[in-house]
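Narrative summary of target 7.
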Amino acid sequence: MIPRLIEWCARHRLTVFALVLALAVWAVVALRATPLDAIPELGDPQVIVYSEWMGRSPDLVEDQVTYPLVRALQSTPGVSAVRGYSMFGMSFVYVIFREGTELYWARTRVLEQLGRVRQSVPAEVAPQLGPDATGLGWVYEYVLEDTRGRHDLAELRALQDFTIRPALQAAPGVAEVASVGGFQRQFQVVVDPQRLAARDVTLDAVIRAVRDANSEVGARVVEMGGREYILRGRGYVRSLDDLATSVVSVGPGGVPVRVRDVATLRYGPEIRRGATDWNGRGEAVGGIVVMRLGANALNVIDGVRREIAALALPDGVRLRSAYDRSELILGAVDTLRTTLVEEGIIVALVCVLFLAHLRSALVAIVVLPVAVLLSFIPMRYLGLSLNIMSLGGIAIAVGELSDAAIVLIENAHVRLAEAPPGADRRRVVLDAAKEVGAPIFFSLLLITVSFLPIFTLAGQAGRLFRPLAYTKTFAMLAAAILSVTLAPPLMVLLIRGRIRTEAENPVARALRTLYAPVARLV
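Modeled conformation, tokenized:
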């Protein structure tokens, strides 16, 4: 079968070249659509449910929020484990699904369960899903630096929350931009119990007055003089004075009791559950860009950079990168590119030195990158990303990809050197290819299946090493096919001119002279 395939490919060279070119174009399209990342996704499919109940102790949050959520979510289809964590004012429930579960299907199932459990948690608690990302989605981190010292941490945090964060969230592929560090400014009402008692005002009345002072209501439309006038009550708080003048109750003689009469108003920070330090120089304000699951990390980072470049920051404030995963991604791609170039140079030197024929090296130099390129087609449709492990599999295979072409070329040279004068060069080359074609093809297939045990790994080990096994298998399979389809037509086309015998090659003679005594001694 293999000899007949070699004969057919050599007879229909243009058809073979056209098919390989079409596959190469397809591979380039698949490569451009394949996501780039630093490492493969290692986490289990999980959905995070976050609830906030500020001011409550961890044991109360556990009893009233975490436990009802965990109990309800345990019956979600496809769930393998549910883990709850309670802390001061916050609850986190991690719903872990079985391996292979589609994330958005899992999020839909969790949302259905949350709709049933809302009656079991306090009315002021609103459980919500975390971003559609994983723990490896942190692709970019940054910090805000005030080089002139004009802004405090509260002002920098306000800049981050209301200017920078909305802009970066608009970048394609961004699931969330989490703000870290600094202080979130609040309007704080510090009630004086003695003044409350002196004016016979309750704390609930003060809370109600503060809540009602920060609202806007609509009324009706009044027609006057052929025009319509829309009436509305505008009551959003813009300053401390707006809260201070809010009426709590009416005292004796119709004198209003205002918030400022029973409390002190000030700006202050919200409760903090963490802080950020920048290079040991003190607290700082920054953000973490989380990538959506399945997005191209390199494209996401490029989009974030474009949004950052378009920001109009205050004078003296600059945004500095603290972590940028694109450096690791581009480093992995450069490693593969360098490996391919080095392998091509080595193959060319081997062919030139030992065979003394430059055009023969082109056979291996063409087959090598084409085999690598074709391995990206199945990667794209299996949903694999280009990362250190998948590119590492190709780098491992590169050393073996060129072996088949070198053996084919060397055997063709030997047969041409031994052929009598006037022999049909094309027939000699094809017979040489048929002689070693089948052994080369099946030996590459044997090497291909050497990584099959890796596919039996489960859990994080399987998710880590399967991309490497996939890419090496695909590259070796492509090399095996190309060795009996593309290489023979290239040999017929390129192996021309004078072919030196071993005795005419000074490098071969020198090596034989050095090797013969060692062989006799052994």
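The two ends are 40 Å apart (CA to CA).
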